[in-house]
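Render this sequence as a predicted structure.
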Amino acid sequence: MKLQGLIFCSMLVICNLLYITGCSQSHEVAIVGGSDNNENMLNTIEVFDPSRGIFTLLANTMSTGRMSATATLLTNESVLIAGGQSPSALNTAQIYQPINNNSIALTASPMNHSRVAQTATLLDPAVVSGPVAGQVLITGGDAFSVTGTAELYNPTTNSFTDTANMQAPRRQHTATLISHCGCAADGLILITGGYDNQFKVLASAELYNPATQKFTAVANMHSPRFRHTATLLNDGTVLIAGGASQMAAETGDINPALNTAEIFNPKTGTFTLTKSLMSTYREAHAASLLHDGTVLLTGGQDNHFLIQNNAEIYDPVSGIFSPTSNSCAGAPPPAGCMSSGRDFHISQTLDDGRVLIAGGVNSQFITTASAEIYDPTIKNFSVTGNMNAARSGAAACLVIS
């Protein structure tokens, strides 16, 4: 597959929601920006209501279209929308306030660096202490800087300040806040993989310490990876799955997808390969933690560059990946398969344990507005209402309904 425009690609960056204000509150899902089937960058936001299975397009719009932006739920229930491509990398950011008439306004100052395919991680006050608790760490994606910049968004001042540079420039990497480990790494942010300004895909990883505001290298992964997923497990370890391991700078060619996965142990600072390989090769896929502690992985491209409609479950207890269906061929596909192939789609676990899967590029390489729900109790996918716009490379975040 050619990199095409994917230097600033439509990599899905879904916010990792770690701060929930109360179990009595219900959440909807905000779908932010992305690009349509004509590669137009979208400035719209729509919200999915799980109780009705429908998407509602907000009347208010962002100041510009954004693809490969980030959306992060803050502790005040607002959402920070940062960076993205439109068509070049953006340094602007906006605050979306679902509880204030869905208002959308630019932050008091822009980011210090233009960014696309960056990460944004809430420094959750339940895990992180000190003056930066509640702020957002934004890393990488910084328009081919040789330094790998990072910055912090402060909701109190509504502005950005630089923090230390990463150990390496990175784009299409992952960032995961460590918690539940009961060790010194709780509250640190794990950064893995991505590619640098020479288009070298990285096996390296590092940890950001909010107390010192510095990055420290840890052991390398077993494989270089970008367009992979990173999922915090209930024991504080992190599942790193799939991705692609090589890119040709001259042509934009991307190596076939990986079928390997590994576990980062924050107590040792090392990576260990999972007991089994994934059930198929995946890159540009999505992963969501389920309420029982297992992980749902959906779609992505395989090692023949085909966009898949299959899915699998990773069980941390056994260390084994299991497909949700033995085969996903046929029309319509079996209930254990998605209705459509998808990559660069969104995947968001809902309050009731089901998972919303929406948008992305389908098996015919067409950006889709379709959406579906995975129900882990019956291990099946079912179609829900379509989005109002076809979107790939959108961002998604839970919001208070």
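Summary. Residues 298 and 311 are 4 Å apart (CA to CA). DSSP finds no helices and 28 strands in the chain.
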